[in-house]
Write a structure and sequence with these properties.
Structural class: mainly alpha
Distance between the termini: 45 Å
Order of helices and strands: HHHHHHHHHHHHHHHHHH
Mean pLDDT: 89
Number of strands: 0
Low-confidence stretches: 1-12
Helix content: over 70%
Number of helices: 18
Radius of gyration: 23 Å
Length: 463
């Protein structure tokens, strides 16, 4: 008689199956998140392209306005980013009430923090003048900021809603909303800038106002989906919305505030790097800006994986599965390295065509093209390190571990990256290349510290 007893599958096979499942789940979450982020970049690029038709002064003013706007917006972004790990942990633990509470406090924080955050955009002209900017440029930037400022609350609210939807394994609705918003945003920006279809001609103010209106549109679309579409409606997230859950709000702030300060440190580093480039030469600054623009697009890939890592690690943490936590972090890191390495290789191989795409092929721009291509080559290691830090930072958020991330950001960015960039650029006479080498070294240290931190916490969970 044949032995019909099913013997246990070898442990290695079980592990391989778990890893394969984790790869599939991470990709299923990450791809819509990547595309949503790319959609946000597409809208910003469209805005700049349409503003460009108003002239160089308007483009320069818009750049100054974005600098003022994003400093305040980034602080709020870090706070509402904490909705995702809180909701993901609740989903893993099978606690729908905590999912509902997490979103509610995220929406309240979006509203409450936006009120003081509006101060800097509304007083942007005074801030820019204090920073030594030309009065004409500061005045133009203020027109744009008057339109942008009112959209902070709905933009943050959309991020909170997006975090909750992703935490319950449904990241697709924010993607569809963003895709629909891209042409709507372009049409509205163009119409309000130039006064089409009976609308007033508002110039730069119209461009900012259009962005605000689109922010309100995306927010209310996401709110309607969460309120009335399954499976989100089953969580009854808007029940008792007027009640502020102070204990959970404090928890969200404790998790989100270090994220905000880490993002501000990163933003400050790259702003300072641009200032260093300006001290070197106009060519260096132009090449740096284009190389960073390419980096920003590339960064959306690991950012999407990092957002997925927050959810997957949060799910496992909520289920109290230490092996699942370790597996989610490992898979996210491997997936990120593979994708970013492939894209980095593509950028290195096409660095000259990419540079000429922005500067053309004339003799006058050849020096800038050459330097841009060189920075893209030097930046190959930076791209991978930046992707890793984004992914591992996301994994640590899934464990609510954000304070040490802030410490590591201070060490990597300001203790290592900036000093090395300064020394190599001006004392080793490497110029723009030295700045990028400094950025690469500091970011690699930051990423390495995050990896070690995640490994340590994962081991503590299994102990």
């Amino acid at each position: 008689m044949l032995d019909t007893v099913q013997h246990p599958q070898p442990q290695s096979g079980v592990q391989q199956n778990h890893l394969a499942d984790e790869f599939g789940e991470t990709l299923r979450l990450a791809v819509p998140m990547m595309l949503t982020q790319l959609g946000q970049i597409a809208m910003m690029t469209t805005d700049l392209a349409l503003i460009g038709r108003l002239g160089e002064d308007s483009v320069a003013a818009a750049a100054l306005a974005h600098t003022v706007y994003f400093i305040s917006f980034t602080f709020g972004l870090g706070l509402v980013a904490a909705v995702s790990p809180l909701a993901a942990q609740a989903f893993g633990a099978g606690d729908p009430r905590r999912i509902r509470r997490s979103l509610r406090v995220g929406l309240w924080v979006s509203l409450l923090i936006s009120l003081p955050m509006m101060a800097s955009p509304l007083y942007g002209e005074e801030i820019l003048l204090a920073l030594g900017q030309a009065p004409h440029s500061a005045a133009l930037a203020q027109h744009y900021l008057y339109g942008l400022a009112w959209g902070i609350a709905p933009a943050l609210g959309f991020i909170a809603l997006r975090g909750m939807m992703s935490a319950v394994n449904h990241p697709q609705p924010p993607l569809w909303i963003t895709i629909a918003a891209i042409p709507a945003n372009a049409l509205l920006v163009y119409a309000l800038i130039h006064g089409l279809y009976g609308l007033p001609r508002l110039g730069l103010f119209g461009a900012g106002l259009a962005t605000t209106l689109v922010n309100f549109g995306t927010f209310f679309a996401a709110l309607g989906i969460v309120a009335y579409r399954k499976p989100f409606a089953d969580y009854h997230t808007l029940v008792h919305l007027w009640r502020i859950d102070w204990p959970l709000m404090r928890e969200l702030i404790m998790i989100g505030a270090p994220i905000s300060f880490s993002l501000l440190m990163e933003y400050g580093l790259f702003s300072s790097a641009a200032l260093l480039m300006g001290l070197i030469s106009t060519t260096a600054l132009a090449a740096h800006q284009i190389a960073l623009q390419v980096t920003a697009v590339l960064f959306m890939i690991p950012l999407g994986i990092g957002l997925a890592a927050t959810v997957r690690v949060g799910h496992a943490f909520g289920r109290n599965e230490p092996d699942g936590v370790k597996r989610a972090g490992l898979v996210a890191a491997l997936l990120g390295i593979a994708l970013v390495a492939a894209l980095t290789l593509a950028i290195v191989l096409t660095r000259y065509p990419l540079a000429r795409l922005f500067f053309g092929g004339g003799d006058t721009s050849e020096a800038t093209v050459e330097l841009t291509a060189t920075l893209l080559l030097v930046g190959a290691t930076f791209f991978i390190a930046d992707g890793l830090q984004s992914i591992m930072g996301g994994a640590l958020r899934g464990l609510n571990d954000t304070r040490m991330t802030l410490v590591f950001a201070a060490i990597g960015y300001w203790g290592i990256a900036f000093p090395i960039a300064w020394v190599l650029a001006f004392h080793a006479h490497l110029g723009a290349v030295g700045v990028w080498i400094g950025l690469s070294i500091g970011t690699f240290v930051y990423a390495g510290l995050l990896i070690l931190r995640f490994q340590r916490l994962a081991r503590k969970l299994t102990a």
